Amino acid sequence: METLEKPALTQEEQFQARIDADVRIEPKDWMPDAYRKTLIRQISQHAHSELVGMLPEGNWITRAPSLKRKSILLSKVQDEAGHGLYLYSAAETLGASRDQMLADLHSGKAKYSSIFNYPTLSWADMGCVGWLVDGAAILNQVPLCRTSYGPYARAMVRVCKEESFHQRQGFEVMQTLCEGAPAQKEMAQEALNRWWWPTLMMFGPKDSESPNTEQSMKWRIKRFTNDELRQKFVDMMVPQAEFLGLTVPDPALKWNEERKAYDFGEVNWEEFWQVVKGNGLCNADRLQARVQAHEEGAWVREAANAHAAKRKAREGVGA
Ligand code: 3HC
């Protein structure tokens, strides 16, 4: 009996079969345009978030309460810059242009994480940014070490190692304040009251409102959905807040024995989308600071390019 030949897989089907088999996709591999496009979107926005993420903490480097705290904060902010550079390089492997990505950030066209549009008003904010924001970043970035696109996954391995230091130093700032004078503990609580909800927004809109999650899960760009990571974050952080003797500002927060997880209140999605649209407290300042830094850094880029051109000409002549 003749055996029916199975029709050859289309390129898309072969691609999806690689994804389903957890075979990493590398820059030279064929990939659907939509896969490339959504990776450039997510990776470039991730890179922008790292760069803009330097600003809220940079604001406290000159006002750190001790030389030790100043040097820790300095190295953390420098790490964030490095994370941004890894991620811009990862996006470039997909054909994105660094200049175009930066132009999109500076013009306000590109997104970056909403969390960085909130002001850092006290030293306790440095604790919250490290403890909560970097804690959320770790929850979101550890699964990205297994994302289907090779260069992105590999960039995340190094980033996650440094994020752990970021989170630990932030928790230690909070612990020092909570074990300090009543006024210091009060400052820590006041900062938690301001940073808790904006940190929950970092994980993105509810899954039901997310236009990208379903496809990103199919392509194993995302390994967990927005709501799954948000829930993990709440379950991880509430015991830590209790250990610090702080109260999470959510009256609906309650342990659900059946789910073995915390039930928690509704995020203010109106605020979230306002901030994403550019109407947050610090959006304008953040973009202005990034544009100014880019303009003031033009001479460094020119010098580096001139040096590279000279060396190339020299090697070209010598070769
Ligand atoms: N801030 C700004 N925009 C956000 C956002 C947020 N917190 N959450 C979602 N959005 C945007 C998305 O970019 C998307 O818009 P777009 O289609 O124009 O890009 C829209 O809202 C709908 O959201 P989706 O959930 O459908 O989008 P994604 O599937 O891309 O999920 C994400 C959003 C979870 C942020 C995902 O992009 C992601 O995991 N990105 C990589 C990690 C990252 O960027 N983290 C940001 C912080 S980096 C950081 O904190 C490091 C620290 O050390 C400084």
UniProtKB/TrEMBL annotation:
Keywords: Oxidoreductase. It is an enzyme of class 1 (oxidoreductase). SUPFAM superfamilies: Ferritin-like. GO terms for cellular component: cytosol. One of its GO terms (biological process) is phenylacetate catabolic process. It comes from the Bacteria. GO terms for molecular function: phenylacetyl-CoA 1,2-epoxidase activity. Its EC number is 1.14.13.149. PANTHER family: 1,2-PHENYLACETYL-COA EPOXIDASE, SUBUNIT A (PTHR30458:SF2), PHENYLACETIC ACID DEGRADATION PROTEIN PAA (PTHR30458). NCBIfam families: PA_CoA_Oxy1. This is 1,2-phenylacetyl-CoA epoxidase subunit A. It comes from Hymenobacter setariae.
